[in-house]
Amino acid sequence: MTAGAELIAVDALPVKLGHFVEICLFHKEYAISHSAGRDEYHVFTTIPAGNRFAGSGRLCICQVELTKLGVGPMEVRPAKPVYVSESLSDYDLHVRTNIFLSAEDFQRSTLIRIIENNKSMVLRPGSSTGLYCPRPGQFIINIG
Predict the structure, then answer these.
(1) I want to staple 35 with a disulfide (CB 3.0 to 4.6 A). Which of 25, 102, 107, 138 is the partner?
(2) CA 71 from centroid of its chain's CA atoms
(3) Cβ-count burial of 56 within 10 angstroms (0-12 exposed, 13-18 middle, 19+ buried)?
(4) Half-sphere exposure of 11 (CA within 13 A, CB side)
């Protein structure tokens, strides 16, 4: 079975030079091999509502404003799903970012797309999942 995760902007999301998001799937306190993803923004831009701004399993460095080039709206590459040994019922998604520092901002501004065996579902952190914020900018979401 394969799984991945993406973060989706609820409203237009301004990002600045130096913003980043790291996400990783965890199973019973252990990181899933190759599931870590990092998105770095080396540009001032806005992610349109409904667009992906982070994904698991790959590194994405945004250095060019796609909208100004006429390529389309700003959105990062899709998550790269990784092999997991069982269903996602006991899995957590760990997020570290400097875009949102409080659980309230993260919950208000973000949707989570879970990809499992090429099927996806969208979750709202905290309402349909558990959401824990151990320190500013760090979030643990139970996706099971």
Answers:
(1) 25
(2) 23
(3) buried
(4) 6
Longest CA span, the chain: 44
Length of the chain: 144
Q: Which two tokens stand for residue 128?
A: 């349909």
Rounded to whole angstroms, how far apart are CA atoms 122 and 104?
A: 18
Give per-residue pLDDT as tens, 33-83. Answer: 999 999 999 988 889 999 999 999 999 988 876 556 555 668 899 999 999
How far is the C-alpha of 110 from the C-alpha of 9, rounded, in Å? Answer: 5
DSSP 79: P
Whole-model pTM? 0.92
CA 70 to chain centre: 25
Q: How confident is the model at residue 29 (pLDDT cuts 50, 70, 90)?
A: confident
